[in-house]
Amino acid sequence: MALSLLPLLLSGCASLNRHHQALLVLGDLSAGSETSRLKRRTEPPRREGLHYEHQGRAYQADLYHPPTLNRGSLILVHGFTEQGRRDARLVALARTLGRVGFRVMVPELDGLRDYSISTREVTAIVDAIRYATREGAETPSQTAIAAVSFAVGPTLIAAMDEAVAHRVSFVVAVGGYYDMTDMLRYVTTGEDRGGIGRAAPPPQREARWAVLLSQLHWLRDEQDRTLLESIARRRLADPDASVADDVRRLGPSGRALYALVTNQQPDRVEALIGKLPPALVNELEALDPSQRSLDRLQARLVLIHGPQDRVIPISHSRRLRDALPAGQARLFETEALKHVAVSPGWRDGWALWRAVEHVLALGERQQQGLKPHGSPP
Does residue 305 carry a pLDDT above 90? Predict the structure, then answer.
């Protein structure tokens, strides 16, 4: 009888330890570069710079080796940041994850670093998955992936790629989008058509200019690119800055993109997208998870989103969860998030703690070679 209870007791101890570690993770993230209980109790991971290639495509990445590998591999995809893989917040997160047993790979993604996101990032994430799961190496045969905000779309599409879908155990998506058209509609007009319409929290004024910067590389006219970049950066620095002179000098493609970004009428969004350069329209469609068959996703999906998100509404994570088979995706709605940053005061920290605990549990199963709960058969 005593022997038969042993596995249950050990399982209970592991669960209690994981609950405690989730609290330590949240405390460490809150502490930033300051000391924390997790920092005092654990050794930091060792960072190694990587250079790797696939079919002539060259990449750089950082690999964080944990003191003890007990949760497997995780690829951390950065969002829009000019610092790329060395963004201080990203480095802090990678170190925190390393302290609790993940081997963390942070690839440098040029399009997310210079605001020129495209399907090139999908290819880069697929190649990172290939590297992290390469056969014959010490790394496990599967990896998890975590992404935030506008990086969630490319990450999901990469995780569905038939060459690597079976190598991804779970995906963590924080504040991500599902429908590209509805995301653009909300950012520019404030209507959340996939959710609660005009009753959604008002979008951040800066978001439209970030979207503009992310699509400039598709314009063939160099003057249009220069003018629109100047407009976007001036409006980011000062929302009321005068840009009328630059707008008058725009060519047809530049005017079409500017018209979309500054439009405030929800019903015009589809028509304005249709007037964009064909290459840009094709890219928007290619980066739209709602336009793809999600049955190619073999990984478990962990969605974390704030109900008051003013960049990408929570309706996107809800729709993404509902688009997958029951049990494959789990959504944690937490007021502790202000888009992808933890809000002051840790309001509703309970939900965020449950999300972290769930990720730690999935990591344990990955390292043990077990199938994550809720994965497709």
Answer: yes
